[in-house]
Amino acid sequence: MSSLRRSPEKIRLPQGFAFSAIAAGIKVSGRPDLALVEATGGASAAALFTQNRVVAAPVTVGREALRSSGGRVRAVVVNSGNANCATGRQGIQGCEEVCGVAGDMLGVDATEVFPSSTGIIGVKFPAAKICDKLPELFAARSAGERGILAFAKAIMTTDTRPKIASVKLRVGKSEVAILGIAKGAGMIHPQMATMLVYLFTDVSASSRELQLVLRAACDQSLNCMSIDGDTSTNDTVLLLASGLSGVRLANVQARKKFSDALSGVCQSLAEQIVTDGEGVQHVIRLSVEQAGSREEALVVARTIAHSMLVKTAWAGADPNWGRILAAVGRCGVDVDPSRVQIFIGKQKVCRNGVGCAFDERQAHRALAQPECDVRVQLGRGRAAVQFLTTDLTAEYVRINADYST
């Protein structure tokens, strides 16, 4: 099993973007909580949003802005410490006010400013405080690693470390860069999308072209992970393309190379999010194999990953395969238990739905590692999915019991 990525990688910056972050007094801690990305020449954009029916104001405003602007974005303004969710009309107006002031500073329409928020739900949105700090935020812009790291740290809430992934690829005689920055450690459950993720590139592409590659990349990565089964009200994945590399996605070869590279960046971010999960001690790489379809495999994987009994067994490194089998049986897929096989690490622990002889100490040692493979074979077909998930610990309970206070 290859080791999951846990910390920021070498940063490769696409052309056409500048970053900044400051403390605006939103977080009680006084830490940086307001961040900016400027697409200096404008960018094409595509986005995926939460499937939660309770939707934060910036998701509503951002989604409409992309429609109104034809998928053009000049700047992204992100605040942490306040989700601006369940804040009524005041929350929408406050979000629009921030976008309007930022747009005026850039000389563009408010619809070209994309908003994001993360933090506590149901707290009045401090629009005036944010607007007062925008001149300082814009003055701090930097097209380098320092600005990127400042941005990545300012959007954190319960995260313990920033999450950054980037890559450069050669297409013909040109180079293309992709940079991803994410936040997320709790309230993580993949439903397109689950967390805040910002992706930047210098390819030339339409919003429609970006939407297709973004959805494909997320399906294989960010939507194949879960920490606690909760889908946030603010989840956003935003992809911006400056076009400054001159490489066009309309070219089939370029699109294939770019799509593979984007998937790799998203996979790295997914791994970084899971390994930084709230209170996480063990990350499980769960493979569901021999399913009738990929959708069927996902249903099984999510049911196992969200079982409190399974997750607490993993917390104790207890090779209690019966809990996994029971989760498979209640997932809603027409599984024949007599065809199910379960593996923990390299050992088969359940054969044809029945326990079989295995070394329990070895299985315990495998689960006690920071990362462990668990495989479930359904005996129904050829489809499979790899799903990243975690254990459930007392520390997770402590973090979330105290979160708002």
How would you characterize this protein structure?
By secondary structure, this protein is of the alpha+beta class. Helix content is 34%, strand content 25%. The chain contains 11 helices and 14 strands. The protein has helices spanning 57-69, 88-106, 127-139, 145-154, 207-219, 252-275, 294-305, 308-315, 321-329, 360-368, 394-401, and strands spanning 17-22, 34-49, 72-80, 113-118, 163-171, 174-183, 196-201, 236-241, 283-291, 341-344, 347-351, 354-355, 371-377, 383-390. The strands form 2 sheets. Strands 1, 2, 3, 4, 5, 6, 7 and 8 form an 8-stranded mixed beta sheet that branches. Strand 11 and strand 12 (354-355) form a beta hairpin. Helix 1 packs across helix 2 (88-106) and helix 5 (207-219) packs across helix 6. The radius of gyration is 22 Å and the shape is globular. The two termini are 40 Å apart. The model is unreliable at 188-194 (pLDDT under 50).
The tally of strands reads: 14
Category by helix and strand content: alpha+beta
User: Could you give the distance between the termini?
Assistant: 40 Å
Query: H/E series, N to C?
Result: EEHEHEHHEEEHEHEHHHEEEHEEH
Round the Cα radius of gyration to an integer and report it.
Answer: 22 Å
Which percent bin holds the helix content?
25-40%
Shape: globular
How many distinct helices? Answer: 11
Tell me the β content.
Answer: 25-35%
Low-confidence stretches: 188-194
Largest sheet: 8 strands, mixed
> What value does the average pLDDT take?
91
Topology record:
Blueprint: E1 17-22, E2 34-49, H1 57-69, E3 72-80, H2 88-106, E4 113-118, H3 127-139, H4 145-154, E5 163-171, E6 174-183, E7 196-201, H5 207-219, E8 236-241, H6 252-275, E9 283-291, H7 294-305, H8 308-315, H9 321-329, E10 341-344, E11 347-351, E12 354-355, H10 360-368, E13 371-377, E14 383-390, H11 394-401
Parallel strand pairs: 3-4, 7-8, 9-13
Antiparallel strand pairs: 1-2, 2-3, 2-8, 5-6, 6-7, 9-14, 10-11, 10-13, 11-12
